[in-house]
Amino acid sequence: MVKYDAIIIGSGQAANPLAKKLAEAGWKTALIEKKWIGGTCINVGCTPTKTLVASGRVAYLVKRSADFGIHTTGVSINIEEVIKRKNAHVSTARESSTKSLLETDNLDLIFGHALFSGPREITVTKDDGAVAVLTADKIFLNTGTRPVTPSIPGLADIPYFTSDTIMDLEEIPRHLAIIGGSYIALEFGQFYRRLGSEVTIIENNTRFLSKEDEDIAAAIKAILEEDGVRICLGVAVEGVAREGNGVRLTVKGGAISASHVLVATGRLPETAALNVAAAGIAIDKHGFIVVNDRLETNVAGIYALGDVKGGPQFTHISYNDHLIVYKNLLEKAHCSTAGRLPVYCLFTDPELGRVGLTEAQAREKGMNIKVATIPASHIARAWENDETRGMLKAIVNADDNTIVGVAMLSVAGGELMSILQMAMVGGITYDVIRDAVFAHPTFAESLNNLFAGLK
Ligand SMILES: Cc1cc2nc3c(=O)[nH]c(=O)nc-3n(C[C@H](O)[C@H](O)[C@H](O)COP(=O)(O)OP(=O)(O)OC[C@H]3O[C@@H](n4cnc5c(N)ncnc54)[C@H](O)[C@@H]3O)c2cc1C
User: 364 CB contacts (<8 Å, ≥6 apart)?
Assistant: First the structure.
């Protein structure tokens, strides 16, 4: 059995920086990865999807070019080149991460599948078939999630896609049916629509984007529908079957015929194949590893970071998890997940930048709030750019004027949100931003207008 100071399983967004830092601090460290360095984000998540979204936006702008006085002779989309560009970005990110890990002293990068074979014993079946048994005082689990396969009759018998697989499809679907209507579904739906596909999103919840405020959700829905995405709410897919070269989805009272199907119904943790039971690690009913706010599992010395521990599934959360663990262990800090602001973006175009509470959440808490909203058409720069879809919204604590939540649905919405996130972190009150001098005409300048209407 090979003894390490630290074993990290899964090369996700927490693992790589943690492995490097522990090794650089002199810890003998092993990082075990069964597939690709960089995990979901680099390989099948953020990097490839945002690369595709960028291609979709170019197609959209070229189609609108006459609005700007620029005339083209039409749009011709080469999906093979779109995918090739995406693959090039993924390879660059993956290769540079791999190189950086391989060049780190004290760090063994092991390609293989890891599982617990005892309380503190990890068995790795390497890619070449060799088996190694490792142990360490500290073990970090960053094994992430995989797409859920819903139990829809017939699904196993049709060639459906998940977000992991559709990004290699070198064909523009004639009609893409997307089962699920959440963030991943919307990003793919708008992308394929912009490439020319007919797109139908089928969501069984009657409320669109139920975690967002109703006005924000309605604005996003209107934008997607204006782009030609069909959104069916309160519709459950009861069965699927092959139909000619395509697929027939049976829904209550009817059917939808599509050429391709994307299943986007959420992600579940990679814990079963890790055999966490052998180490006595507690998991919840969905298989997510249970941790405290210092990311410690119920077993001393074993930590879980990133998506596998449940909660918000984002790259920045996983990255921040590694900081918490590293600082607590190496710098004797007292970092925790408590009080971490919920922050994320939905990368439709325009994008939604979100941080803190929604209006509904603030009201549920019984807070005394003021709500500021303006349409994106009141953003001078957006108007000059002829991209005025969306709205800006901020929730202010009326007792002390601090900002408690933000939803920026606009071109550059993620950046606008981040400006207000900084204000929230620094305790800058809304009236300071209302009266601040921002350069004209930036998107940021619109924050003056957003707060100008608040009494
Ligand atoms: C389509 C899509 C788009 C997304 N877009 C965004 C976005 O725009 N912004 C954002 O913040 N987040 C986005 N996310 C979420 C983001 O990708 C994840 O939250 C992020 O990658 C964090 O993952 P992680 O660190 O928990 O682990 P992951 O990145 O999932 O890595 C886990 C790694 O563990 C490996 N592994 C698992 N089990 C074992 C085992 N037994 N032995 C060895 N290795 C193992 C896996 O192969 C994988 O490489 C997106 C996700 C998807 C699917």
Answer: none
Q: How far is the CA of 363 from the centre of ligand 1 (A)?
A: 33
CA 308 to ligand 1: nearest atom: 26
Distance from the alpha carbon of residue 218 to the mean position of ligand 1, in angstroms? 29
pLDDT at 399 over 90: yes
List of E strands, 121-269: 121-126, 131-141, 145-147, 175-179, 198-203, 229-233, 237-243, 246-251, 254-258, 260-263, 267-269
What is the distance in A from the centroid of ligand 1 to the CA of 143? 8
Write out residues with Cβ below 6 Å of ligand 1: 9-14, 32-36, 39-41, 44-46, 49, 113-115, 142-145, 163, 184, 270, 273-274, 306-308, 313-316, 318, 347
Q: To test ligand 1's pocket by mutation, which of 143, 146, 274, 348 has the most ligand atoms within 8 angstroms of CB?
A: 143
Per-residue pLDDT tens for 72-107? 998 999 999 999 999 999 999 999 999 999 999 999
Give the model confidence (pLDDT) of 8-30 as tens digits. 999 999 999 999 999 999 999 99
Give the domains, in start order, of the chain with CATH numbers.
Answer: 2-147+268-330 (3.50.50.60), 155-265 (3.50.50.60), 343-452 (3.30.390.30)
pLDDT of amino acid 317 = 98
